[in-house]
Please model this.
Amino acid sequence: MNVCICVSGYIRIGLVFAAWRASQTPAVFVPLYSVSIALDGVDGWLARRLGQSSRFGAWLDVVVDNLGRGMLWGQLFEWGWLVSALEWCVFVCNHSTRGNHWKSSFTCSPRLIQAIMTNGLRTPLGTWVVSGLHCLPLWLYGLQRDLLSLPLWVRALGTTLLVAGRLLALSAEMWCLWTHVEYLTSDEPEERKN
Model:
């Protein structure tokens, strides 16, 4: 496990908690949360580039993602905990059955899920999905607090594109949950029967 890559995960945790603490002060919240999102991409890229990917790093990355988004969804809406709960369930399902290579384990999935997950979400469609996951709650935070001084059509278009990306993510999440339930309810493999 590379210490530098894990340090960025711990820095992200600190940024998420600092952002949560400052959630009522947009001038502080938005930069803290945005840097956390940016570091998510940087630490993954560095891990792959340096050949330092690890099971713990993959796990920590998604934990911090879910922690940050869960905090923000909870701040935005009374029902925000539902989005967070779904993301945590998918995390548990993916990491318990697919391990740290979960992003590349969808070769037998429906075509839409394969297209989303191709190359570990590093395609135009995958980028759209990740934008819906990460950017939609921040965009909605900006809309709720009237921070986006943009024409109405731009706000509507931005919201529509990010919601569509989040719905595509939801389709992949539901597939993950469905296949996990099928796995758990199927005949147990021999090694699990003992």
Notes: Confidence is low (pLDDT under 50) at residues 190-194.
